[in-house]
Amino acid sequence: MSGFILVDRETAYLMPPSLEDWLNEDHLARFIVEVIDQLDLSNLTRQYSGRGSKAYHPAMLL
Question: InterPro entries attached here (predicted)?
Answer without folding.
Answer: Transposase_InsH_N
